[in-house]
Specification:
Number of helices: 13
Number of strands: 23
Largest sheet: 6 strands, mixed
Helix content: 25-40%
CATH architecture of the largest domain: 2-Layer Sandwich
Shape: globular
Low-confidence stretches: none
CATH class of the largest domain: Alpha Beta
């Protein structure tokens, strides 16, 4: 056996592996359930299943949807903000857009809630001139206040810091003097550009996911070292590039959309080899549906991306549009009595009802099972056969009774709602951007993609 390259992707529901042997060009794959409590364990389970030896593996490349899913499901860390006095509410005032163009109402949940956003005296103008010196004596009290509120990370975002980052850097030093181990994100380092709201939002996202990514990578690299894997762990970025694990921990925002970005790159390469250079690439996993446009074998790239309503991130990344529609997306009847699918996902634990791990909410996977589109005897993630009658009963009790539908009709309704949402995502990246979908081939991949594309 020759020199091997290991590729791994940790999703919200499954962790996938691909091993390439460079000498004989052979490949091996593995798929294990993601372990939400300790996602590094799922990675190690896959390494064990593949029987990999540390001496044979030359490179480990790792893509992840951990950060993306944390933002979509609002399950990130508790993060605090220190900003220029008078600008505490920049993240909440936003650009005063509406979630629905013609709607008269809507809701918005900032990444950092107002009680965790604190102010301090300092001011720099747009030319970088200091107008008000940083009130250094006030930093320790702000840190103590945030520490008492249980934050796991701190974002420092001062007005016009892109022109002169001295105050942000000094504030970080003072924070670390008081609380050395806390992770600190500077807006001027994450996005050294004009536009206060977008820079603040990007920095807030970094602070929101940084503790999660940092804990995960520390755990993973530690466990790999114990098994003799001393190779540098390379982490995929959302722009399709790679960075080492230490840089990924401090610049966690660059891991956002890294899993889908890898899929879009692979789709482009496959399309070129197959004679279809123009593609609509659809990656449907257990938690999300990621769609991207590939023209001439190259995925579109953007520097301005909204991950959610009024949650922009301004770093270079492959233009992937994501919605909360995956195999594990939960179906429910909302307050208006309308069937809704996602964005919440059952994930790997407890997972779909079909998994038999305590899940009790109907999901897209359960709907496919009831409709006979999945084989109940060999469903991925289930050791034995799935209990079809249990799934049918739950579908009827939770959804069917409210809509006057039997379990099969309920399953069909769930798929219709989910598929309509995914069709809308495809229209968004094609028709709404001036592209005719008829000029593109549809390339569906991911655990659930081909099932819903046919």
């Amino acid at each position: 056996m020759g020199e091997q390259v290991l590729g791994a992707d940790v999703g919200g529901t499954y962790t996938d592996f691909l091993v390439v042997d460079r000498e004989n060009t052979g490949i091996r794959i593995a798929k294990v359930l993601t372990t939400p409590g300790n996602q590094a364990q799922g990675f190690l389970d896959g390494v064990t299943e593949l029987g990999l030896k540390s001496s044979a593996v030359r490179t480990i490349v790792h893509g992840t949807t951990i950060a993306t899913n944390a933002i979509l499901e609002r399950k990130g860390s508790r993060c605090g903000l220190i900003t220029t006095r008078g600008f505490r509410d920049t993240l909440e005032l936003r650009r005063r857009t509406r979630p629905h163009v013609f709607g008269l109402h809507g809701s918005f949940e900032p990444i950092i809630p107002r009680d965790l956003r604190l102010e301090i005296d300092e001011r720099v103008d747009a030319e970088g001139n200091v107008l008000v010196p940083l009130y250094e004596e006030g930093v320790p009290s702000l840190v103590a206040q945030l520490r008492g509120l249980g934050v796991e990370g701190i974002v420092i975002h001062f007005i016009h810091a892109y022109a002169n980052p001295t105050h942000e850097r000094r504030c970080r030093d003072l924070v670390h003097e008081t609380w050395p181990e806390i992770g600190v994100t500077l807006g001027s380092e994450i996005m050294p550009e004009v536009r206060e709201f977008e820079r603040g939002s990007t920095a807030a996202i970094n602070g929101y996911v940084q503790p999660i990514i940092s804990r995960y990578l520390d755990s993973l690299t530690g466990q790999l070292l114990k098994r003799g894997f001393e190779q540098e762990l390379l982490i995929m970025q959302g722009n399709g590039g790679m960075m080492d694990a230490p840089l990924a921990k401090s610049h966690a925002v660059h891991t956002v959309m890294s899993g889908p970005a890898a899929g879009a790159l692979a789709a482009g390469r496959t399309g070129i080899q197959s004679g279809f250079p123009n593609l609509i690439a659809c990656d449907m996993g257990g938690t999300s549906f990621d769609v991207s446009l590939v023209i001439g074998g190259e995925p579109a790239v953007t520097r301005e991306k909204e991950l959610d309503y009024s949650v922009p991130v301004h770093v270079p990344m492959i233009d992937v549009h994501t919605i909360g529609a995956g195999g594990g997306s939960i179906a429910r009847i909302n307050e208006a009595g309308i069937l809704q699918v996602g964005p919440d996902s059952a994930g790997a634990d407890p997972g779909a009802i079909a998994y038999g791990r305590g899940g009790c909410e109907p999901t897209v996977t359960d709907a496919n099972l009831v409709l006979g589109r999945l084989n109940s005897e060999t469903i991925t993630g289930v050791a034995g056969a799935a209990k079809l009658e249990t799934v049918r009963a739950a579908m009827g009790d939770k959804i069917g009774k409210c809509l006057g539908l039997d379990p099969v009709e309920t399953g069909a309704a769930i798929l219709a709602v989910a598929n309509n949402a995914m069709a809308g995502a495809i229209r968004f990246i094609s028709v709404e951007k001036g592209h005719d979908p008829r000029d593109f081939a549809l390339f569906a991949f991911g655990g659930a993609g081909p099932l819903h594309a046919t």
